[in-house]
Fold:
Amino acid sequence: GLIPHPAVNYSSPSATGSLTFTPISGIAGTATVTVTVNDAGPVNNITTRTFTVTVNAAPTITGLTNLSLLEDTASAPLPFTIADAETAATALTVQAFSSNPSVVAPGGLTLAGTGASRSITLTPVPDQSGFSTISVTVADGSGNITTNAFLVTVLSVNDAPTLAPLSNLGLAQNAGPQTVNLSGIGSGAPNENQVLVVTATSGNPSLVPAPTVNYASPAAIGSLTFTPVPGASGSAVITVKVMDDGGTDRSGIDSITRTFTVEVAAAQPPTLEIQWVGGQIVVSWSTNSGSGWKLGFAIEINGPWFAVPGTPSVTAGRYTVTLPASGEAGYFRLCAGCSLPSVPRPPVLTVTRADEEIILSWPEGDGNFVLQVSENVVNPEWFNTGATPVVNAGVASVTLPATGTAQFFRLCATCSSGTPLSPEPPPLTVTRDGDELILQWSVVTGTFVLESAADIVIPEWEPVPATPQVTSHTATVTLSAFDDGQLYFRLRRP
Structure:
């Protein structure tokens, strides 16, 4: 049965009483309880009342057991099953709780699944270990809640110690004592209080003896000191190792290694070999001199000098750098232990046309640049425009007359001086063809204004009111011929 016979609590002739009963555990369903009152009279002595008792079964949850995890490692999805006699599994509410949020925080409990098949994934708090009881509850909405609790043990794992990366070092021969600072030294986790040991070795003791380590645990900084062997040149790889005492149990890591290279350049730079190969400049030097040399470039022998971009390749015992030919004279040199700036990147050059003028502008604060012009961009011959920029609100601008032919402009940082545009005008050819005068000149050397005057002794030069037509780098102006008087023409640089 579902409900045993209730116990009656009543004393006659009281108007009230009660029944007490306890449903049998583990059984759900309904039962009808009948209550009878008898006054022992001869007739009409019995009254009967009934009521129904419904016992709702609690939901069930199965499949979760104790487990162990490694520090900083999430579990796989842990499957479990839920059910209820009266409520569909899709209508059941599942929740999860952690008894120790410092080991498994609420955000580290991820529930998934639908229907009867559910899962939970556990993600411990980073760098933490210990115990936590995880309680998973399922509720049916009728007040019945079932809990499945299991113990999670997060096992400690030694985190790798830390050491900041180290930069390579270029030195000249006989550079003397050197100090390299170490930083970022640590145990790897805030809760790991360990003894740290720093060691350093040299891959080429004949050039750089094993460095002396200056460090006291648990400081975050330290240093190395060493002196390259006098008269020696070449390269040595220095290996720095930080080790803690946390061990390697459960795949723990107890050390970290960083390396850097010390390049000691020979006192005299090696001979540079410069070749022109297929429209490119190939600069090379012997690898026997070590790799501590920096290749510099300048337009003028007295500088300014800039670092050639890119890393040299090694071919047949030579360091090699291949560069595109710029069409300009240039100088190369090798230096050791020097600091060469990068070639300044030119700013954006804006070119606009306003009637018969070309306006070129660029941000003035980006450095000092020379404005150059060329009639050809395939095999250019660059000329300095010679125009002085006007600076307004941080913008440099140059205004030039339009030539009617294609022109190419650039800003050059390394061109502190260059080939100026020719101050002399090109030859002006004047021919007559019937009723027309045809005037022609070359525009290769720059832009010129065609002017005329009626008198050559005391000339009053005025611009010819005609727009040149440019074809194949030749400007042409056609005028109506005249038979009275003389007219003189000239070309003038604007």
The chain has a mean pLDDT of 87. The CA atoms of residues 10 and 17 lie 5 Å apart. The chain has no helices and 40 strands. The longest strand covers residues 145-155.
